[in-house]
Records
---
Amino acid sequence: MKSVLALFAAITLVGPGLAGAQKPGARPSSTQTGPTSQAKTDSQATVEGDDSQPIKLGTELVNVLFSVVDQNNRIVSNLNSKEVTVLDEGRPQEMFVFRREVNLPINIAILIDLSGSQEYTFPEEKRAAGYFLHSIIRPGKDSAALLTFQDDVDLVQGLTSQMDTINRALDEVEYSRRLGPLTSRNKATALYDAMYITVDEILGREELRRGAEDSMARRAIILLTDGVDNASNRKLDEAIDRAWRSGVMIYAIGIGDRFRFEGVREDILQKISEATGGRAYFPRGSDELLDNFRQIEAELRSQYLVAYSPTNPSRDGSFHKIDVQIKDHPGVRIIHRRGYYAPMEEVKK
């Protein structure tokens, strides 16, 4: 993997945009964070809230963002707190915050597979990604980064909110066929390494130490790939674990050459997305691809935020499984990450 200076910022849930192209490396992070917001202020949050007002938290809370869609994939936007139950390790939790979020900043990393299976689909992917970024990025508030991968990972553009910079970076990305026959080198794809590095060095954060709730943001990877991995040093569970620790959602768009290569690994992409709170899409053409990007935009712009103080407040670094349940809305699908890691108690020397 190519060397890079790690791109970290000490923040609550997300760092500010970092412009400029650098090359990400493969160095593992020592970060051991979970999505717990360790916010300590003088006043405590109310359950129902106006999303134009900052959240005031009075204790260490776990923040959970989730989306709800009906059987027609339409966003359900009329829930109230009495219809929502959050379980932590199977135990119902008292919610200190419940509100619909439509205006939080978004940090997005577009991660594009440039292995051989993408040769004929890449032009459509590039056009759809450009449309998506133009639609979702609000200059000065949201940020985007652009990365590509084959057997290695290239950072084309670091996080920036400047659309001119994003446009130039996207224009620079071209598919380049490797010379020679289809050898194992030509077909090498390090998907899991690319996911891990994108979370660790682009969207990751250091251990949570501040409680400035206005720094909250949604962070997501938009992954365009066929889901095949045959060259990573890390395993799939390691990449998912790293996303859990940094609270990064992964939206996968399964696309690739179904004739010359293995086809799309829908099982892998479903696992990645469902575990991290995103969704997996499998378009059958350019129109469906554009529609998938529109659905992702709608979900990122319309989510619910709940915050609770775990009934099991142990600081042992253990994994806590989260489940969000909705009553009185049969047939809906609830999209959220599957859990978080409790913080570790610092050992005093």
---
Amino acid sequence: MSTEKLQAEATTVTQDNPNKIRVIALIDGFNLYHSLERFDGGIDEPDRARYQKYKWLCLWSLVKRFVAPVTEELVSVEYFTTLPTWDDAKKLRHQTYISAQKLRGVNVTLGEFKQKTVPCRASCKQEFAINVEKQTDVNIALAMNHLAAQYDKLLLLTADSDQVPTINLLKKMHPTKQVAVIIPVGRKAKELKKACGGSAFKITEEHLSQCQLPNPIPIMKEGRQVALLVKPTVWPVP
């Protein structure tokens, strides 16, 4: 499928239709990524890596699985993530993935990593620096309210309970808005589900399998292919 067709699929919605519920999805990128990188319920190391083969995931297609086609329209998908600037190889892979999402019509908001000094919990008790993701939680919280005029229903893809206060505030400020959580595979989100009034969806392995991006993705310009976007070769194949 061409890039132009992919973009058309991603952005085609029923415009100005008052009978449709407008849906926006906000995705916590690293929360989703870590659910694929390591399945905590695995019985051994290979089992804990069981979802790594689904990293080439189409976020637009995934979210559409949780949108009712007759009564709802997916207005936009907002992806919040951060580039690992200390590792050039990882950074390039993530930039490739971000480019693939943008081709599907996904909007991307970047945060940043900052170093934090923490004490060793082992016997040495020495301090060392780690990279800590910053801004993503705040960016998601801001988007919930900043985009409120553009949606009737919010889908929040995360298992991070830090968003509970923001959901509570959103429901207080905009009591007519619907809010549902999409829980990453292998994760639990009891507090988020409670904050959403029990409205929750669960990502399954079938969803992941059915929502993989094509590889390679042709880059089209003025009706002709000018480049190919290729899945990182170190990522496992489903």
